Fold this protein.
Amino acid sequence: MRKTYKSSNVRFCMEDENQRRTWEYLQSLTRKDSSYGKALSDAFVLVLDGKVPMGDAGEKEES
């Protein structure tokens, strides 16, 4: 059975500490470690399921 994939672009602001650290982490992943999609989806699911506090992710973004 073939897996179905969807593609999405994600942009990171290098002036934002959390976004920069996330980008650096994703750049350090090797195919053996994980994929971008798997790493991001695992993190999102943990937050959305309430297993990890959202921190300031729920705050309104500045313009």
Observations:
- The chain has a mean pLDDT of 83.
- The two ends are 45 Å apart (CA to CA).
